[in-house]
Amino acid sequence: MQVNVISYSLKELFEKAKNVLVVLGSDVNEDSGSLAASLVEIFSGYSKNVELLTREEIPLAARPLVKSEQVKTKVEPKSLVISFDWTKTALDKVSYNLEGDKFNLIIRSKSGKLDAKDASFSYKGSDWDLIVTVGIKDISELVNLGFEQDNFNRSASINFDKSEANTNFAKLNIVNPEAESLCGLAVSTFKDSGIKLPTRAAETMLFGIRAATNNFTSVSDPQIFEAAAYCKRSMIPGMVTENIEIKTEKNENQEKDTPEAWLSPKIFRSNRVS
Q1: CA 262 to CA 265: how far, in whole Å?
Q2: Residues 39 and 107 in one domain
Q3: Cα–Cα 20 to 30 A to 173, which of 60, 130, 167, 265?
């Protein structure tokens, strides 16, 4: 499995992000679709603002995990950018004011006149601080969905895939061409990272694992059973817990009250003759 970590662990990325976008690739099946929907559920459990970008239908069993308003089919830019060659005329001040329903952006030069013909307008940017891709091999697939590469590079990113053609384009790449299930790959990673699974996400990822392995009849890696077991435990309240160090206090009175003769070695002899 290829795992590249730049600055954060998986759990830190999950906890630090506030606005998350899950992107599902075009080759959607019950396994990849279940993982994408489960990621939405997991991030929602962390109280994140999360959206799912996909142009494909997600599996019927996974749909209850995603609200209709969370699904989008294209990247919608949120910033209007006004550009012009500032070297022609030095800027003095940029300000704005409101006139009724109008917002006026005011750009004042130190000398000369700013020609409106030199200005150009464009749209770009998003406020996602974490982008998680599922079943996407290369950043070009994201560009086809409306992403600008610069915007993607500025965000933290996680790449879940099991294709040999994957180019490890994200900051954190969880890619294993030998994995039998994307859900299984993700669950194993979550388990090792200490990320707990909400009940519905655990159920849905178990469904994805079953679908990918033909209900466990075509399994070559025993770790898939461990992933399935983690899903099952996550579905039972209280079964998945943090490791707790249990300390016992020494009873000082116990040693103090114990007769010294009891603590010394003993030799027992028998008078019985056989």
Answers
A1: 8
A2: no
A3: 60
Residues 156 and 216 in one domain: yes
- Report pLDDT digits (tens) over 252-269: 444 445 455 544 554 544
Amino acid identity of 243? N
pTM (global) more than 0.85: no
Q: Is 204 exposed, middle or buried (0-12, 13-18, 19+ CB in 10 A)?
A: buried
**CB-count exposure of residue 269 (10 Å: 0-12, 13-18, 19+):** exposed
Q: How many CB atoms lie within 10 A of CB 11?
A: 13
Q: Are residues 114 and 210 in the same domain?
A: no
pLDDT digits (tens, 9 = 90+) for 21-44: 999 999 999 999 999 999 999 999
Percent helix, strand and coil across the chain, each to the nearest 5: 35, 20, 45
DSSP letters spanning 146-159? T--HHHHHHSEEEE
Same domain, 66 and 100: no
